[in-house]
Write a structure and sequence with these properties.
Layout: E1 7-16, E2 19-28, E3 34-39, H1 45-52, E4 60-65, E5 68-69, H2 75-81, E6 82-85, H3 97-102, H4 117-129, H5 145-158, E7 163-167, H6 175-192, E8 195-199, H7 203-209, E9 212-217, E10 220-225, H8 227-230, H9 233-240, E11 244-248, E12 255-259, H10 280-285
Parallel strand pairs: 3-8, 3-9, 6-7, 7-8
Antiparallel strand pairs: 1-2, 1-4, 4-5, 9-10, 11-12
Helix pairs in contact: 4-5
Length: 286
């Protein structure tokens, strides 16, 4: 795998039925890097990811893969280059873990669908990496939400694409498994140069794992760049409508967001200014 593939949206407008969700958006993924997309609910995060995966055709503008219109490329060529983990995927009834993982190899099959040793190795590696090898023969229907999510990630990894798009890959996972999955994706990025874009709701995990952070607001690009430049108290207020204090993460050195709220201000720190310029005392009284 290499980091030579490029994927971008150029002046894209997206929507469903008579509702426009994203309008005139320009966004390019950084090749060989990890991009995390954040924003409030219904701001267009998943919609943008769907358009990048060719699941949603733009009403205007263009999604471009390696300089070509994504929607004009052969389906199998796209599937060998770009893998997607959507929100809440549904497995075929009764399918076992190993067989679901094997579905990630379909883009690599020839006209006669011949299975190879390379396919076996790719699926085995994906199951091992996601900690699902020991449940390979279990029905997906019997698994917990967290186990099921890791199996879906295994399927995407078995696809062995140079570009990975993941919509909330940590859904249903406890905090330990969230970190394991994000560490795994980081390993993949560093070892293979895989370009990764993922939607995350957890701002602090997004800031910790992203090389580039993209903040969307009401279907428009609000801020993009290094997490330290994007994740500020002003941006958190503007994008999420929430007062916060942003401080360095003692573990990673990246920014970490501390929501203020109305009920958790200690009297001894009242009046200490936060980064946004709003004091803790004034924020508590607002």
């Amino acid at each position: 795998m290499t980091d030579t593939h490029s994927l971008e949206v150029r002046g894209v407008t997206l929507g469903y039925a008579d509702r426009t969700v994203v309008e005139d958006l320009d966004l390019a993924l950084a090749p060989g890097r990890i991009t995390c997309i954040v924003g409030a609910n219904a701001c267009g995060k998943s919609t943008v990811l769907r358009s990048m995966a060719r699941l949603l055709k733009p009403r205007g503008g263009q999604v471009v893969l390696d300089g070509h219109d994504l929607h004009a490329l052969p389906t199998k060529q796209v599937a060998r280059t770009l893998g997607l983990l959507p929100q809440s995927p549904v497995a075929p009834e009764g399918i076992v873990v190993a067989d679901l993982g094997a579905r990630g190899r379909h883009p690599h099959q020839g006209a006669l669908a011949r299975w190879t040793r390379e396919d076996d190795e790719a699926v085995a590696e994906a199951l091992e990496l996601t900690g699902t090898a020991e449940i390979a023969e279990r029905s997906v229907d019997e698994l917990s939400g967290g186990q099921r999510q890791r199996v879906w990630i295994a399927m995407v990894l078995a696809q062995q694409t140079d570009l990975l798009l993941l919509d909330e890959p940590t859904t249903f996972l406890d905090v330990a498994h969230q970190v394991e999955v994000l560490d795994l994706l980081t390993d993949l990025n560093r070892a293979r140069g895989t370009t990764i874009a993922m939607v995350l709701h957890d701002l602090n995990l997004a800031a910790r794992y992203a090389d580039r952070l993209v903040a969307l607001r009401a279907g428009h690009l609000h801020a993009a760049g290094d997490p330290a430049d994007v994740l500020t108290a002003d941006v958190v207020r503007e994008v999420f409508g929430m007062e916060s204090q942003v401080v360095p993460d003692p573990v990673s050195g990246r920014p970490i967001v501390l929501p203020i709220g109305r009920h958790h201000v200690r009297p001894e720190v009242a009046g200490v200014p936060v980064e946004s310029g709003v004091s803790v005392a004034s924020a508590a009284g607002s």
